[in-house]
Amino acid sequence: MPRPSQGAGGLALSALDDSVLDYSVPDYGVQDDSAQDDSAQGDSGQDDSAQGDSGQDDDDPPRGAPGPAAPSVTRPRPPERPGRGRRALLAGRRAVRAVAALLLLAAVWEILPRLEVVDPTFLPPLSEVLLAWAELLRSGELADHAGASLARSLAGFGLAIALAVPLGLLIGWYRPVAQFLGPVLELFRNTAALALLPVFVLILGLGETSKVSIILYACAWPILLNTVAGVKGVDPLLIKSATSMGLKPYRLFQKVILPAAVPTIFTGVRLAGAYSILVLVAAEMVGAKAGLGYLINYAQFNFRVPDMYAGIITISALGLLFNLLLVRLERRFSTWRTT
Amino acid sequence: MKIELLDVTKEFPVRDSGTPFTALSGVSLSVASGEFLTLVGPSGCGKSTLLDLLTGLATPTRGEIRLDGVPVTGPGLDRGIVFQQYALFPWRTALANVEFGLEAKAVPRRERRELAGHYLDLVGLTGFAERYPHELSGGMRQRVAIARSLAYDPAVLLMDEPFAALDAQTRESLQEELLRIWQATGKTVVFITHGIDEAVYLGQRVAVMTPAPGRIREVVEVSFDSREGDLRGTARFGEYRHAIWSLLREEAVPVA
Ligand SMILES: Nc1ncnc2c1ncn2[C@@H]1O[C@H](COP(=O)(O)OP(=O)(O)OP(=O)(O)O)[C@@H](O)[C@H]1O
Ligand SMILES: [Mg+2]
Predict the structure, then answer these.
(1) Would you say A79 and A55 are in contact if contact means Cβ atoms under 8 Å apart?
(2) Residue A118, pLDDT score
(3) Is A221 exposed, middle or buried (0-12, 13-18, 19+ CB in 10 A)?
(4) Hey, are the CB atoms on B57 and A73 less than 8 Å from each other?
């Protein structure tokens, strides 16, 4: 349908052939527009009701006086915002359902070990785990471990953003860069991050560098691939429209490509956030002296089973919170994506 | 601004074929300054291609396009384009969309806001400045697109089937508004359509195109004694409509 805009001379957007860098592998969450919309609808019920009202303002009323010189123009009325009450109610109902599932899980965890359906030595009741957790918190041990873990995660995650976004923009925008880096990226992308952990340790030692590096490595991929997809996925018509207003490539990039790609980039950032926590544990299981991964490993080694579960719960909560934060942020940056 | 097309031909290379596809062949046409010209032709006859050439987004294979005697070398803010599919920036509000061209023109921020607001008023969208495109109806989006191309005050307005996707009522009201704006601003307008009624209603002249390869078949002068009342229902309007219909129809039969 849309012809490549010849005005964007030499810039390979639609032209970049996919064989060079096939970015459509689902495990990195690279999404095309439709997939993105689906997921947005899945976890954001409020958005739907927020847009529901706009349809009512659509129809222009029939015009009164005909004739080209007629000065009176029927103007659509400014809209009113949708009712908050209904939205709050829907959100409330959803929250109740979500909490119910968690309570059920907690109950099962408490009861099964107590009835000795499962061996309480290996899975102590939740209450014991929570007591152990409280003790770890009180002694300050938990804060130390969580702090160490968080610092590593955030460092790796932050560095990944700083490196992968610019690189992705370059690859998406300049065809020669994509052609040059394509095969190498393809090779590395298909190598599991954790498979490289020993290599990282071998080269960078057992210290912080190797831990942060492995997190960086794991985080970089979803960001990189989503950024490339975001840049390549910009509607050619928008590029054409901007070019027709005489925008030079640099401005075009700044004012059209970048804002259009932001939601897709953010999808990558959100996934990277999840990876930064997932990889963390593995990274901390080798040669660490602090961190939640270390705590879990160490507790298991010393048969402090409740402590081990306390560590696991903490890391889950941490991952959940981080993801929640990023989902929030992502939604903020992509409000216009909802159609 | 005066537009001249001198024997313009546009060919596209065809994949796996030595001979290129001729989209436009020997098109010559001139549009006077301040004139409203409509261009009708069947789908695929090269109307959008012609517009791309006028915009400077594409270059003619042969021939030349001149604006006030100066050959077109690329896009510029002296021409405003309204696309059929609106082409609004979805991450910008209506107001910010209208400001886009003004930013390209480096108009100071304060002035930009004022001008954009003024043009939104002009197209009847007062109060919708902060709405995003997905919160607007099709007709309203098209109004924003029109406001955007008017805002940076181009001498020429190029419109590619801008009202094709709208319902009849919205279309008619936008047609009236467009004429009103044209009369108020004195811009040169080239308006592409495949609707005969629309072409006759809007144009001072109607250029009729032939398909594959696209050529200008004939240019019909349109004038009414009075535009009061139901113009589309008058006998005169019917005559123009029939004349253009016949011209388009002749093209369906291959000329020996
Ligand atoms: N970039 C291109 N490469 C090859 N052929 C093209 C290209 N652009 C247009 N064409 C061809 O040129 C012809 C004219 O296309 P154009 O889009 O100008 O038609 P149109 O008159 O605007 O049609 P419509 O009314 O459907 O919009 C078509 O046959 C089309 O296939
Ligand atoms: Mg067209």
Answers:
(1) no
(2) 83
(3) buried
(4) no
The Cα–Cα gap between B162 and B145 comes to: 9
Q: What is the pLDDT of residue A75?
A: 52
Strand partners, B206: B38, B220
Looking only at the bridges linking them, the beta strands covering B205-210 and B215-221 are: antiparallel
Q: Reduce the DSSP state of residue A306 to 3 states and report it.
A: helix
**Cβ contacts of B58 on chain A, cutoff 8 Å:** 6
DSSP B13: -
Per DSSP, A253 falls in state: I
In 3D space, the residue among B4, B45, B40 whose CA is nearest the CA of residue B24 turns out to be B45
> What backbone torsions phi and psi does residue B217 show, to the nearest 5 degrees?
-75, -50
How far is the centre of ligand 1, averaged over its atoms, from the C-alpha of A243 (Å)? Answer: 19
pLDDT at B125: 87
pLDDT digits (tens, 9 = 90+) for B157-178: 999 998 888 888 888 888 988 8
Q: Which of B57, B54, B48 is nearest to B67 (CA)?
A: B54
Calculate mean pLDDT across residues B144-153.
Answer: 90
Superfamily of domain B1-72+188-256: P-loop containing nucleotide triphosphate hydrolases (3.40.50.300)
Element (H, E) at A261: helix A258-284
At residue B134's C-alpha, the angle toward residues B133 and B137, to 5°, is 80
- CB-CB under 8 Å, B100 with A242: yes
What is the C-alpha separation between B35 and A108, in angstroms, rounded? 79
Read off the amino acid at residue A57: D
Answer for the pair A40, A203: CB distance below 8 angstroms, yes or no. no
Mean pLDDT check: name the lowest of A296-305, B78-87, B142-151, B218-227: B218-227
Q: Does residue B95's CB lie within 6 angstroms of at least one atom of ligand 1?
A: no
CATH number of A124-333: 1.10.3720.10
Going from N- to C-terminal start, the domains of chain A cover: 124-333
Domain limits of chain B?
Answer: 1-72+188-256
Global ipTM: 0.87
**Tens digit of pLDDT for each residue in B106-123?**
889 999 999 999 989 888
Q: Whole-model pTM above 0.90?
A: no
